[in-house]
């Protein structure tokens, strides 16, 4: 009996650490789970894990918080070095890696210039932004030059989680951190913080200022696809500025499956956003590759729609 050919698979929220940049990180999760060798690998270990799961291409991105908590004296030059080294890794493994750049967000104009450099000189597919940038949400007007340049270059910005604001941790989570430290991260805090960031971006006016800006959210949209109708209905009540939150979200955002291999969540997201707005991702090495690709074999979609999620939508958005 003939079997279906293996689908081409692109995964686009797959992380690594640059040794120079990561020297300033403190990550108990990485140490406790033994993830550092995987994060350090841009070669054999990583490619073997991809091959085991049937992943053809990873779009590489630096793990949080990347360069977003550095001072202006060091961030710009370091971001450039980090991006240059990532470019070398992509070149060393043709056809297996692509990349999102890091941005020195403490200097928004320099960030816009660095985005242009890595896209035009290195062929990067956009950039990833991690949570708060030195305490500021990414909708702040100081960051709008980055959106302007991303639109001009026609590349997406990937909004990735990072640790919640200290005041939020103190108010919401402190009683549970000792016994359940992941409440701050993938267990809950990451999603809330990143969904809030996305909501603020929609409400800020930046999407009207730069129509055509493209944004990506991981983890099945950080829960927002399931709340779009309610958010939109509430925002349309008397006293609110006239805007269609749902329409703006569906026009500007794409989502990925990173770290959320739930069939009900996927089907809900397809019904809300359309299958063309969803792309496959794993969140390696924080999440294992094989469960992601094995899960995709089981989802009740036709081959054409699976192919859109596994590679077609990423090819179109990232021009691969």
Report on this model:
This protein has 320 residues and is α/β, with parallel strands linked by helices. It has a single domain, classed as Metal-dependent hydrolases (TIM Barrel), CATH 3.20.20.140. Helix content is 48%, strand content 10%. The strands form two sheets. A five-stranded parallel β-sheet has the order 4-5-6-7-8. α6 runs parallel beside α7. The mean pLDDT is 95.
Percent helix range: 40-55%
Strand order of the largest sheet: 4-5-6-7-8
In percent, how much strand structure appears in the residues? 5-15%
Count of separate structural domains: 1
| Helix-strand category | alpha/beta
Helical segment count:
15
Shape: globular
What is the CATH class name? Alpha Beta
Count the E strands: 8
Structure in a nutshell:
The chain has 320 residues and is an alpha/beta fold.
């Amino acid at each position: 009996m003939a079997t279906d050919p293996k689908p081409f698979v692109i995964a686009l929220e797959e992380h690594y650490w640059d040794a120079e940049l990561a020297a300033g990180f403190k990550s108990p999760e990485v140490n406790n789970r033994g993830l550092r060798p995987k994060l350090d690998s841009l070669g054999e270990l990583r490619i073997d894990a991809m091959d085991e799961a049937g992943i053809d291409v990873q779009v590489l991105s630096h793990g949080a918080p990347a360069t977003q908590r550095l001072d202006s004296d060091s961030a710009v030059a370091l971001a450039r070095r980090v991006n240059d080294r990532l470019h070398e890794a992509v070149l060393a493994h043709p056809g297996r890696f692509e990349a999102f750049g890091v941005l020195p967000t403490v200097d928004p104009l320099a960030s816009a210039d660095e985005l242009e450099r890595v896209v035009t000189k290195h062929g990067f597919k956009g950039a990833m932004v991690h949570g708060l940038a030195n305490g500021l949400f990414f909708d702040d007007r100081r960051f709008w030059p980055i959106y302007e340049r991303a639109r001009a270059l026609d590349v997406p910005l990937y909004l990735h989680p990072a640790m919640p604001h200290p005041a939020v941790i103190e108010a919401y989570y402190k009683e549970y951190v000792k016994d359940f430290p992941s409440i701050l991260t993938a267990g809950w805090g990451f999603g809330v913080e990143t969904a809030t960031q996305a909501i603020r971006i929609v409400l800020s006016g930046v999407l009207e200022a730069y129509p055509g800006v493209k944004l990506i959210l991981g983890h099945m949209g950080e829960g927002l696809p399931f709340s779009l109708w309610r958010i939109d209905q509430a925002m349309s009540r008397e006293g609110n500025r006239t805007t269609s939150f749902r329409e703006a979200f569906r026009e500007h955002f794409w989502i990925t499956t990173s770290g959320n291999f739930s069939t009900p969540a996927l089907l809900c997201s397809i019904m809300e956003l359309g299958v063309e707005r969803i792309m496959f991702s794993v969140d390696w090495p924080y999440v294992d590759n094989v469960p992601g690709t094995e899960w995709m074999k089981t989802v009740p979609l036709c081959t054409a729609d699976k192919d859109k999620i596994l590679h077609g939508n990423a090819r179109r958005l990232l021009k691969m």
